[in-house]
């Protein structure tokens, strides 16, 4: 079953509701601020950025964009789906402490960031920040990171629904078994559990999950299940 936080962000119907839900999640997770960045690479070579945050300082969104081209956390999220826990060391190792001084002045001393890169030039990153040092708080990072990854999958679905045009998706009807697989995935069942229910091998199931994610133009099976929920394929 979906957690209350997940239901809340999935139900958001406006930018303000979306902001309230991601802020509530971040603060419940022990972080002061959050930003969600939706990015679209257009066919003409331009890139569109839609940022929703609760940083609360109008100067934040007026920062010179050239800074972000040298920001190591931003550049990591731009190309990688591997989550990152970051702090001063990330900037120090790249010799860009002046950028760290800039972001930390807004209370962003350290944080966690996750990102997803979808077909059609669509990207999404969710970052939670704190005004304290996370580098020595490994227990909090270990607790928070998997929860952030799971919440981000739900936030991505809502961000794309609110801020981007509808998917141009021509999808052949799914079998009853495929619908069941996506539904069980959304319920949090593991690949092993679903394979047992279907009396097939776990490897066969994982292959089908990858195929379903590809057909639904998603990065992984959980995002595919959420998209199937939004499209009314599962309920």
UniProtKB/TrEMBL annotation:
Specify the domain of life of the species encoding this protein.
Bacteria
Annotated Gene3D superfamilies: Transcription factor LuxR-like, autoinducer-binding domain, Winged helix-like DNA-binding domain superfamily/Winged helix DNA-binding domain
Checking InterPro entries in the record gives:
Sig_transdc_resp-reg_C-effctor, TF_LuxR_autoind-bd_dom, TF_LuxR_autoind-bd_dom_sf, Tscrpt_reg_LuxR_C, WH-like_DNA-bd_sf
Span of domain HTH luxR-type: 167-232
- Provide this UniProt record's keywords sorted from A to Z: DNA-binding, Transcription, Transcription regulation
Pfam families with a match to the protein in the record? Autoind_bind, GerE
PROSITE patterns in the cross-refs: HTH_LUXR_2
Q: What is this protein called?
A: Autoinducer binding domain-containing protein
């Amino acid at each position: 079953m979906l957690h209350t936080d997940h239901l809340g962000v999935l139900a958001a119907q406006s930018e303000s509701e979306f902001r309230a839900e991601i802020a509530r999640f971040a603060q419940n997770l022990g972080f002061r601020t959050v930003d969600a960045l939706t990015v679209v690479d257009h066919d003409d070579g331009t890139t569109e950025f839609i940022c929703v945050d609760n940083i609360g300082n109008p100067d934040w969104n007026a920062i010179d964009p050239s800074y972000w081209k040298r920001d190591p956390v931003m550049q990591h999220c731009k190309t990688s789906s591997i989550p990152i826990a970051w702090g001063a060391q990330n900037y120090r190792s790249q010799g860009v402490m002046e950028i760290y001084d800039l972001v930390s002045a807004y209370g962003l001393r350290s944080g966690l960031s996750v990102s997803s890169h979808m077909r059609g030039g669509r990207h999404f990153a969710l970052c939670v920040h704190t005004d304290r040092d996370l580098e020595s708080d490994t227990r909090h990072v270990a607790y928070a990171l998997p929860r952030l990854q799971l919440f981000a999958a739900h936030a991505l679905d809502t961000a794309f629904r609110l801020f981007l045009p509808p998917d141009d998706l021509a999808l052949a009807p799914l079998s009853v078994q495929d619908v069941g697989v996506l539904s069980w995935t959304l319920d949090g069942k593991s690949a092993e559990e679903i394979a047992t229910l279907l009396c097939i091998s776990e490897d066969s199931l994982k292959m089908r999950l990858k195929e379903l994610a590809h057909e639904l133009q998603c990065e992984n099976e959980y995002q595919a299940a959420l998209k199937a929920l939004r499209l009314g394929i599962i309920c």
